Amino acid sequence: MPVVKLAINHWPGYEFLFLAKEKHYFEKEGVRVQLVEFTSLPDVLEAYQSGDVDGMACTLVETLAAAGQARRQPQIFLVTDYSNGGDVILARNEIRIPDGLSGLAVACESNHLGGYMLYRALQKYNRTLADVKLVNLDQTEMEKAFRKGEVDAVVAYPPVSTSLLRDGQAQVIFSSANIPGEVLDVLVADKSLIDGKPDAVRAIIRAWGRAHKFHTRNREDSHQIMGRHMGLMPEEFAQILDKLKLIAPDEQVPYFEPENGRLLEIARNTHGILRQMGSLSGDLDISVLIAPASLHPTP
């Protein structure tokens, strides 16, 4: 039975992989999956780029960053969800809108989704990243910095955002709901795995689909299992999940169509924004980042 290592960090949409692990769906589908956990997206990306893992759960931003480095050949083989309020910019209560961040210290994972979110928030007020004091911290470090008063705002996601909002010291001034459909969460594998072991990739897709269906039929049990793994109460996990648009197994194929597919369009738009930011340079053939639609079962 093939073994596939996937790098992953805490995010509600990725927890379905842990649910699949808990329910032994991977083994039942004929693949062994090792979920290698990290505390931040930058660490996930580094594990993939260094060759320590076969793939990763990440956002479209990290996928494009990996492709831009040209150290490996990432391909998206599954879309888990898009964030619709799950990713947030939190600020001290006296700061009401992103425009109020001018001149203040903002913590984020600057070359990753956090930087993208902050750029898009400031862009709506005709401001740029140069208008704030950018502090590059991972999720755990930024929570500590915010609580100590070392930064005025953070770009965060659960469980860090949940923790900061729980005690009333911060408020949401911008979220992924303000840029609907842009923050896409995906599963990525190196092209060598997809070409060399397509059956293993198909098995991961089927196992994820089984976890998705289990959640549909057993929400309370699912929220307890996935919430516990994230350090959240089941009701907290359920509330966060409401801020995601989960992409069901039978909704996958339209994202992977080779011409005019949803994924191709979203990725091109995201790549253009990353170039505006200066995070990426040069042209990129986006189509090579998308695995064949044939990996997915026909609805």
From TrEMBL:
Its main location: periplasm. Pfam families: NMT1_2 (PF13379). It comes from the Bacteria. The keyword DNA damage does not apply. GO terms for cellular component: periplasmic space. Keywords: Signal. It is found in: Periplasm. Belongs to the bacterial solute-binding protein SsuA/TauA family. This is ABC transporter substrate-binding protein. It comes from Ruficoccus amylovorans.
